[in-house]
Design brief:
It comes from Streptomyces siderophoricus. The protein is of the alpha/beta class and about 240 residues long. It has seven helices and eleven strands. The strands form three sheets. A seven-stranded mixed sheet has the order 3-2-1-4-9-6-10, with helices on both faces. Strands 5-11 form a two-stranded antiparallel sheet. It is globular, with a radius of gyration of 19 Å. The N terminus is likely disordered.
Amino acid sequence: MTGVQHSYPTQAVVLAGGQGSRLRPYTDDRPKPMVEIPGTGTPIIGHQLNWLAEEGVTDVVISCGHLAEVLQEWLDHAQLPLRVTTVVETEPLGRGGGLKYAAGSLPRPDEPWYATNGDIWTRFPLREMAAFHHERDAEATLALARPRLPWGIVETDAFGHVLDFIEAPPSPYLINAGVYVFSAAFTGLLPEHGDHERMTFPRLARERRLAGYPLPHGAYWRAIDTAKDLTEAAKELSAQGR
């Protein structure tokens, strides 16, 4: 797409400070983004940094928390495809405050930036999302996923006759996929403390300055919250030859 290349961010924030309590015992000795998907040989954060680099990102700020020193030590010894800075909150700031604190270390504060949660495993064209964001003149754009339901469903007709059984169908609802494009000015809209999804996003939505980018059909996305997610991600990635 021509005319929007200037809007492609080259910097990003990765939020990697969560406790990961539902992934124990994997997170007893490492932060959640350092958990490895079985068979890949790479922790989640390594996958994310490679993906961001492939999409043109040159600088990443990682917001650390739980067992930050484990992540920092891995970064010190890893062969990284881009420049990485880490920040650690000295007090709990909430998701929005933590995002603002990390954004303060971005090397180019007058340019747009990506952000991603540190516990997701995904691949899709970030530049297309940035172009979508630019076309809508948005302050913030969030990626939207349609995950598969963890249950099978029963399809019936209007009379209550069972028509079919469908195993793990796609959700009828879109959810926040945990990947964002932000304008340079968005940093100033974030709270010092608190949750941006409750404080900043609703105001932007009312002003029609918040956009939602549906992930392209066939794009891989999974949040890694539980041991079952690790197992399912390993199966899915193996089936895709990754």
